[in-house]
Amino acid sequence: MSERKELSTQNALKVRARAKRHKPAFVRPESWRYDKFSESWRRPRGLDNKVRRKIKGWPPGPSTGYKGPKVARGLHPSGYEEVLVHNVEELVKLNPKIEAARIAHTVGKRKRGQIVSEARKRNLVILNVKEVKATAEEEPKPEEAKKAPAEKKEEKKKEKKPQKAPKKTKTEKGAKKR
After folding, report:
1. What is the distance between the alpha carbons of residues 175 and 178, in angstroms, rounded to a whole number?
2. pLDDT tens for residues 108-166?
3. Do residues 47 and 97 share a domain?
4. Residues 74-107: pLDDT tens digits?
């Protein structure tokens, strides 16, 4: 049963993506005519409003015909249900087959690291984690690692100070004026 449901979920996600391509961008009626109206959608309520009455030649408004399949509603494009996680204890409640974690934006760096490591142990998917790949350029060179912090500061100061041009003599100044 779960295999059949999984297949139908994947198909429903494809159907939802296909339908979304054909869905128009719903804009507020008359927003193209008046600068005082923003383009964000507002439901037309007037008696004579052409969009509300679905008059031919006027842009369409949102309706139930644009909905995606019921199985796919509220799912992440990966097919998982999103669950907001604030701490490690909330990871225990997740089902790794159908749910994926999204770490709340208020979580700090230390706790975020704990959540990520615990999720990897439990084979959970985290939707908002950036994978960092270490490259040879980012790793400190052995010579630079040995230097004392005071020496590094002195080198930075030297790099920041611009070289002053040598002072010009009176003859050079006069030669430019002529």
Report:
1. 6
2. 999 999 999 999 999 999 999 877 565 545 555 555 555 566 666 666 666 665 666 66
3. no
4. 899 988 999 999 999 999 999 999 999 999 999 9
Please report where in the chains the tokens 């790794």 appear, as a residue.
96
pTM exceeds 0.90 for this model: no
How many structural domains is the chain composed of? Answer: 2
Residue 48 forms part of a structural domain: yes
Tokens of 138: 């980012």
One domain for residues 41 and 9 = yes
From CA 36, how far away is CA 90, in angstroms rounded? 46
Rg (CA), the chain: 31
